[in-house]
Write a structure and sequence with these properties.
Blueprint: H1 2-11, H2 17-34, H3 67-77, H4 98-101, E1 106-107, E2 115-116
Antiparallel strand pairs: 1-2
Length: 117
């Protein structure tokens, strides 16, 4: 990727050899980090993520209670021209409108598994 950017800039008349050298240094440092402990996964030749922090990642502490409801709402509101909503009544091939399709119950873990229509 570094070479692709360098070549594109060079073709546009903006050759910057110092930028290329800095980019190579960053890429080399990144390569070295992923090819030694604790990232190396044994003798597999593969690397893995290793968290150097303490405790859970900040993004995992977010309350996601309504996450799946919000995702479902988005797809139900933006159904036109897409195949997000499927007709499960059997036999119909056209893409149904949400008005016809939202007759199913949805299990919501945040509501103790109670169905909502």
């Amino acid at each position: 990727m570094i070479m692709a950017v360098y070549r594109a800039e060079k073709a546009a008349g903006h050759e910057d050899r110092a930028w290329l050298e800095r980019g190579y240094q960053f890429a080399s440092k990144d390569y070295e980090m992923w090819n030694r402990e604790p990232h190396v996964a044994g003798d597999t030749g593969l690397s893995r993520y290793f968290d150097f922090g303490n405790g859970p990642a900040p993004e995992s502490l977010k309350d996601e209670t309504d996450f799946y409801r919000k995702v479902a709402s988005y797809f139900l509101l933006h159904w036109e021209g897409r195949n997000y909503v499927a007709d499960m009544s059997g036999g119909k091939s056209e893409t149904p409108s949400p008005e016809r399709s939202i007759r199913a119950s949805v299990r919501c873990p945040e509501n103790d598994g109670k169905a909502r229509v």
